[in-house]
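Can't paste images in this forum, so I'm doing it all in text. The chain is below; anyone willing to post the predicted structure tokens underneath?
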Amino acid sequence: MNLDKHKNKIVYPELSYTITGVCFKVHNTLGRFSREKQYGDALEELLKDEKIQYQRECVVGNTGNRVDFVVEDKIVLELKAKDTITREDYYQIQRYLQAMEMKLGLLINFRSKYLKPTRVIKIDTDARTKFV
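Text version of the structure:
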């Protein structure tokens, strides 16, 4: 398999790699049993240190929902601190991507023993019918 051929298809590889690294630092520092807000606060401090532009608790369209972070106006970052990620969590971030017209979301569950960031790519569909 030719990796160079697929490398160009990865959405925001450098930025998502940097964000993932910051999330690993947060997980290593706080462990797996903190609250979602604590992870968000620690992540915010590290994003500032890395001089990465972000917005926290952004309102999504006219839905009243709030996304945890929007990084560099490119990536939706949704934090979780629960035992398992469910289908609803994927649907939630997909709705955010649809409403904000962004290409990539990162779903991070800090509760798991080993941090496994999940890349969620925007699906080209009508979000009102697919992810409700």
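The CA atoms of residues 15 and 75 lie 8 Å apart. The radius of gyration is 15 Å.
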